[in-house]
Design goal:
Radius of gyration: 16 Å
Order of helices and strands: EEHHHEEEHEHEEH
Shape: globular
Largest sheet: 8 strands, mixed
Distance between the termini: 30 Å
Structural class: alpha+beta
Strand order of the largest sheet: 1-2-3-4-5-6-8-7
Length: 187
Amino acid sequence: MFAISLGDDGAELRPLEPWQADEFLAHMDRARELVDRHVGLAGVVTDLDSARTFLGRYAEKQAADAGRIYGIWLDGTLVGGVMFRLFDAAEGTCEVGCWLEPAATGRGLVTRAVRVLIDWAVDRRGIHRVEWVVSSANLPSVRTAQRLGLRRDGVLRGASLHHGLRQDNEIWSVLAPEWREQRRDAA
């Protein structure tokens, strides 16, 4: 298995696979309250079987080249993750997503991890458009999209149902030429 360093603070990005369901469930138990505020992941992963099923779906997505999931480990503990929720190489589009447990917030872990994903998607897979879909109420995630240099394309009013309430979803994106330009400017 591989691990990609996310900096000098002991953070690593690694594949998250079905055999890690125990560790993933323990992490989701720590993350549940924070994650559940804005996304349905916490309600999907509630026991060992559902953790295995969720990770198994992403293993199937990866085998079909339709999605991938990675964990963020900090000093050997799973504290969050990032994913290609959707991945369509033929169309040149993908959607990235993320989550963290409370102890890992405020360290830039998601920003660093998503940069790795976007670099790979654009440079290795030829993806042209990377999207980030976020509840308008999820301000930390909106700020991450901004830090990554994504542009807000618009708001889908009342687009999704979360805990019985309609929420607005913002669509943020970056195009491959914009991403490459940002990296050049940063270097």
